[in-house]
Amino acid sequence: MKIDVIGSGSAFSKRNNTSSIRVIDSLQNQWLIDCGPTVPRAIWQRNIGVNEIKVIYFTHIHPDHSSGLAALINQWKSFKRTEPLTIFCQAEQKQPLQALVALAVWPETQLCFEIDWQDISAAFTWQHWQIRTADTQHEMANKAIRITIGEKTLFYSGDGRPTAASQALMQGADLAFQECASFDALPEDASHGDLPDCLRLLAETAVSALGLYHCFDEAIAHLVRAVDQTEKAFISRDGLVIDLGNEDFLPGLMHDTSIIEREIF
Ligand SMILES: [Zn+2]
């Protein structure tokens, strides 16, 4: 399983793409998780063919996770995608996403490829992928996801503060990405993760590596310095490519402290 970090930024980041990853298996099946406003261009910059992404999974539909869908579908329409696309979303969040697809096609009403809309459930399979989902604590319902392919497991939180259910989903993952907006502790009823809570997760979940992402721009330098004191945590960054098939993937994630200098502008 390979993970391509398309974006690691918070909603209004001036330096990073909005948060999104691509998950690729050994058969070159590709999923896109979330699709905020800066994600389509990052995909085009990678020269990913219009038929390559088979599935888009939406953790939730805040605009920084969903509004790129119109532009991406429009590009696939313009360059004549033919392969069907599956979209996983929460049932109650489907209608706004369908409006984005309608915008991509307007004033026409027909796309040149099929879209198979699937509701997210607590556990399901897709081809040989085993998937489980759970709610985080966010201002909008958000489904964290755990993907197991063969021996490898990835966890991706989407937005929100960890819950007992999302923590259970993270347990023992080879790689986990947890939203961590803040360096300082946030209130227990907050809608976002923070560093102290993420360090607690690191101690309790036996993950092999924990990537913190969706960090507020002004928190990144502090977070990089803080996770530098840990062995398994890192601050995610745009353009990271992680191959879980490489047993030695962890050192490559660890800290490029030049990120701190680049971040100050
Ligand atoms: Zn959100």
Structure description:
- By secondary structure, this protein is an alpha/beta fold.
- The protein has a single domain, classed as Metallo-beta-lactamase, Chain A, CATH 3.60.15.10.
- The strands form two sheets. The protein has a seven-stranded mixed β-sheet. A seven-stranded mixed β-sheet has the order 7-8-9-10-11-12-13.
- The site of zinc ion has 5 residues, from loops.
Q: What about the largest sheet?
A: 7 strands, mixed
> CATH homologous superfamily?
Ribonuclease Z/Hydroxyacylglutathione hydrolase-like
Put simply, the count of helices is: 9
What is the helix fraction of residues, given as a range?
A: 25-40%
Question: Helix and strand string, N-terminal first?
Answer: EEEHEHHEHEEEEEHEHEHEEHH
Name of the CATH first level: Alpha Beta
- The CATH topology is Metallo-beta-lactamase, Chain A
Number of DSSP-assigned strands: 14
Instruction: Kindly report the spatial arrangement of strands forming the biggest sheet.
Output: 6-5-4-3-2-1-14
Low-confidence stretches: none
Bound molecules: zinc ion
Question: From the helix content, strand content and strand pairing, which structural class follows?
Answer: alpha/beta
Straight-line distance between termini: 35 Å
Domain module count: 1
Report mean pLDDT, rounded to a whole number: 94
- The coarse overall form would be globular
Rg, nearest Å: 18 Å
CATH architecture descriptor name = 4-Layer Sandwich
